[in-house]
Here is the input.
Amino acid sequence: MEEHHKPVLLSEVLQALNPQPGENYLDFTAGYAGHASRILDVTQNYKDSVLVDRDENAIKYLSEKFANTKINIMHDDFYSAALQLCKCGNTFDMILADFGVSSPQLDVGSRGFSFMHEGPLDMRMDSRQELSADTIINTWSEKQLCEIFSNYGEMSPGFSQKVARIILTQRPFRTTTELANAIAKETRKSRIHPATRVFQAVRIAVNDELGIITKTLPLLPKLLKPGGRVAIITFHSLEDRLVKDFFKDASQKGEESELKIINKKPIIAEKVELVNNPRARSAKLRVARGC
Here is the structure.
């Protein structure tokens, strides 16, 4: 099948998880199987492995790609999937979570994730949910907008308020480019487009990304076999801080420690990968082992 998405840090993930024949694997963000395919090629254990994704397009792709196997494919966010797997008593030799947005989500204008492609203000990873970017941009109060811009976009209070007021005075907005152009027109030019952090903040809010990560992390040790490996890829400091702090806390409980940290510093992409896949530039990989 055609490659839809270049997996970031692929060689580093393979080295960290070190898949072995017969081991089982849980991928919380399977997407278009960039990592999963390579890992399952080694393990050949499809019937005891699980692939999870919120995106119906990814689920369709995975279902077709692995149609001739008995692999379990779950159309859900990874917290809901983790809860269900915990209740069923499932445990795994390897767990992977890649918190990044996939290339098809960014590159398809109709998904509304990027202002580089004109499309509706959507940004939903799971199209079944009601909350969309349109709702946030066109109905939320100035206070609510300022809060997500400051907390999720890591913007200064002053700039957050300025952008919020631009939105309030000029809405309704219907497309990604309309919103981005309005922000760019009323703010100072900088090295990155002034709407970049706005779109990040709205996307995080739409999909409750940090909330889901926060609730999922404590479930990881329960899903990991003793000696099992968990690898997590993050793409901005808010996500990385959550993972870093959880791994640290879970590994410093003495005899009751649930994890052992494998790499104290995050693993980042090599120069060669950055040339071939610029989206890997902000990726950070953290790895731990079950106790």
User: Anything to note?
Assistant: Strands lie at 25-27, 50-53, 72-75, 92-98, 224-234, 259-261, 284-290. Residues 109-208 form a domain with the DNA polymerase; domain 1 fold (CATH 1.10.150.170).
